[in-house]
């Protein structure tokens, strides 16, 4: 049989997902699965079954279940920081920025924060703690830089107190993890006016 006469072999089933789409699908499946169980007794098999994927595909992307859990928080944190940069560009007043920033926080974090991150161990827990610190530092740096610029221009008569700003931000972030892990999302959302006032007070003199 000549080369031209050899029939072309057809692939079966659905075309393979791009690598990044596979990872995102696993993350979304994990969010759904963790939402039902809060992570207790949840296995990699449960996650891949939810995603309709194989364990081999899971381990192509993550070292363990805790590795994926850490990624859940970190992906939301990265989106939050990106949204804050957009808010800083399109708004002018501190009150409006606080309002929009808190709104984005409440929209982004509930899906991932229903997981009790404090119960993670090992490398995953440290990655989450490091990402939490990084987020707070980036947000504080943005606020302080703008405050310093306003002070230098004579538009405000005080310099921003970074320690006070970081304290309030870390308190809000830590409280959200506790409320969300306990399923008290609505109660936390009701604290929005208090969070705004605390942040504005921290930014002010």
Characterize the structure shown.
This protein is mainly α and 205 residues long. It folds into 2 domains: 16-62, Arc Repressor Mutant, subunit A (Orthogonal Bundle), CATH 1.10.10; 64-203, Tetracycline Repressor, domain 2. 72% of the residues lie in helices and 0% in strands. It has 9 helices and no strands. The protein has helices spanning 19-37, 44-51, 55-61, 65-90, 94-113, 122-152, 162-181, 185-189, 192-203. Helix 4 (65-90) packs antiparallel against helix 5 (94-113). The longest helix has 31 residues, at 122-152. The radius of gyration is 22 Å and the shape is elongated. The relative contact order is 0.10. The model has no long low-confidence stretch (mean pLDDT 77).
End-to-end CA span:
87 Å
Helix content: over 70%
Radius of gyration: 22 Å
Give the CATH class of the largest domain: Mainly Alpha
Structural class: mainly alpha
Based on the coordinates given, report the CATH architecture of the largest domain.
Answer: Orthogonal Bundle
General form: elongated
Nearest-integer average pLDDT: 77
Spell out the CATH superfamily of the largest domain: Tetracycline Repressor, domain 2
Q: Tell me the series of helices and strands, N- to C-terminal.
A: HHHHHHHHH
How much of the polypeptide forms β-strand, as a percent range? under 5%
How many beta-strand runs? 0
Q: Specify the biggest β-sheet.
A: none
Number of domains: 2
CATH structural fold name of the largest domain: Tetracycline Repressor, domain 2
